[in-house]
Amino acid sequence: MKVAVDFDECLKDSPRFRATIEEVEADVCELESKLDKLVKLCIGMIDAGKAYNVASKHFVHGIQELAQQSAKDEVVESNLTKFAETLQEMINYHTILFDQAQRSIRSQLQIFMKEDLRKFREAKKQFDKVSEEKEVALAKNAQAARNKQQEVEEATNILTATRKCFRHVVLDYVLQINVLQSKRRSEILKSMLSFMYAHLTFFHQGYDLFSELQPLMKQLGGQLDQLVIDAAKEKRDMELKHSTIQQKAALQDFSNDDTKLEYNVDADNGIAMEGYLFKRASNAFKTWNRRWFSIRNNQLVYQKKFRDNPTVVVEDLRLCTVKHCEDIERRFCFEVVSPTKSCMMQADSEKLRQAWIKAVQNSIATAFREKGEDVDKLDRRSSASACSLESGSESQDRSLKGESALQRVLAIPGNDRCCDCGAADPRWASINLGITLCIQCSGIHRSLGVHFSKVRSLTLDTWEPELLKLMCELGNAVINGIYEARRQELATRKPRAGDSRQEAESYIRAKYVEKRFVHRPSPAEQKAKLLALSRQEKRSSNSSGHLPPRPPPPTPQLRPASSVTAAASGEEEGKESLFCPDELDSLFSYFDTTSQLRSIKSADSGIQNSAEGSREMLASTPSANSLSEAEAPDPTPLPPHARGSAVPREPKPYSPGLQLFWASCAGSLPDMAEAMAHGAEVNWANVDDDKKTPLIMAVQGGSLVTCEFLLQNAASVNQPDAYGRGPLHHATTLGHTGQVCLFLKRGASQNAVDIDNKTPLAIAVEAANADIVTLLRLAKMNDEMRESEGPYGQSGDETYQDIFRDFSQMASSDPDRLNRFQPNDSHRL
Question: Which pLDDT score is estimated for 812?
Answer without folding.
Answer: 64
